[in-house]
């Protein structure tokens, strides 16, 4: 007998499902198609850099749908809560192992909130001689932006609420939910 897939129910912390799993899958397909088209004439494999930990599920789904040669690496950024300290400073905790010079780089992030993390990474990678640096973010919260950033690939725009699932967490909880859920305000 076929095993039925169960959808984990909302717990008492979670207000509503914002984006369901089928919608996520369709959008990731579209993004992968777009990225594959844009990099189809690439001379060296695309260097995909996932920002730990939140991007790992989006990245896993996305890169398995790409039809261009690519290499996957990861970085970790210090977090003082979300988006850096009072001045928006963020710090590299774990760097990539691949050489970035002369490479086409695609940063894969879970969500753009203040924009401090991605602005820092874009600067950092450009000074290290990347040939091009583009950004793919699964979610965007435009109301929270503090810096101006160009998003090359974006999954969904969401309102200013805390969301979990599909890699995103609240204190390490709810990362592996297959959908994006909105939490009741906790902070
Ligand atoms: P930034 O403010 O754009 O630098 O985002 C910093 C980080 O905060 C993101 O990479 C996420 O890991 C985290 N973050 C921001 N908003 C949310 C959310 O709604 N849920 C889970 N994590 C979030
Ligand atoms: Mg993150």
Task: Give the arrangement of secondary structure elements.
Elements: E1 14-19, H1 21-38, E2 46-52, H2 56-63, E3 70-77, E4 92-94, E5 104-112, H3 116-127, E6 132-140, E7 153-157, E8 163-164, E9 180-183
Parallel strand pairs: 2-3, 2-5, 5-6, 6-7
Antiparallel strand pairs: 1-9, 3-4, 8-9
This protein binds inosinic acid (IMP) and magnesium ion (MG).
Describe the 3D structure.
The chain is of the alpha/beta class and 187 residues long. It has one domain (14-80, 87-183): Rossmann fold (3-Layer(aba) Sandwich). Helices cover 20% and strands 28% of the residues. It contains three helices and nine strands. The chain has helices at 21-38, 56-63, 116-127; strands at 14-19, 46-52, 70-77, 92-94, 104-112, 132-140, 153-157, 163-164, 180-183. The strands form two sheets. It has a six-stranded mixed sheet. A three-stranded antiparallel sheet has the order 1-9-8. Strand 2, helix 2 (56-63) and strand 3 (70-77) form a beta-alpha-beta unit. Helix 1 packs across helix 2. It is globular and about 50 Å long. The N and C termini lie far apart (45 Å). The model has no long low-confidence stretch (mean pLDDT 92). Magnesium ion (MG) is lined by residues 51, 54, 110.
